[in-house]
Amino acid sequence: MQRKKIDVDVVKDVLDLLLAARPDSTFVQSLAFQYAERGGLSKKQLEGLRLKALKVPEIPAHKLATLEAIILRKPTKERSAASAATPMFTKDEATGAIIDAILAKYPQHKQVLFLKAKYDNNEILSTAEITDLKRLEKLLNK
What is the mean pLDDT of residues 90-99? Predict the structure, then answer.
């Protein structure tokens, strides 16, 4: 962040005034340490600093207004709502109907029984297996 006047630092001034007013506050001490180490504070930290500063009457109103403007300039990070869990596999009802129709006529058909076991275990049927089922269905309809 580029500052126009390096000698004007409102956040540091507010921190110094708060430390003078409340020297025993560990929250303000930790904010002052983080500001000195990193050179800045997060939006949440600045909001907490502002709430503390509002309770101290020695802090001038123009410093509080500038602090509020700094807070408003910072972007707000919002988390999106958790998406609903979707099942990894959805059964194709048309394929299940074809399998049931074939097994209704030929209950001992080994290939169709094998494909039904795969279908019931939620395994994905290959395109070749699906085309075989459709071919068998066409033969049954003749």
Answer: 86
Of 24, 22, 51, 19, give the one whose Cα is nearest residue 35: 19
Condensed to tens digits (0 to 9), the pLDDT of residues 99-137 reads 998 899 888 989 999 999 998 988 888 999 999 999 988
What whole-number distance in Å separates Cα of residue 31 and Cα of residue 15? 8
Task: State the Cα–Cα distance between residues 107 and 48, nearest whole angstrom.
Answer: 73
Q: Where are the domains of the chain?
A: 10-73, 93-141
pTM (whole model) above 0.85: no
Measure Cα distances from 26 to 10, 18, 30, 52, 78 in Å: 20, 11, 6, 12, 28
Distance of CA 10 to the CA centre of its chain: 34
Measured distance CA(5)–CA(88) in Å, rounded: 57
Using alpha carbons, select from 89, 139, 95, 136 the residue that is nearest to residue 116. 95
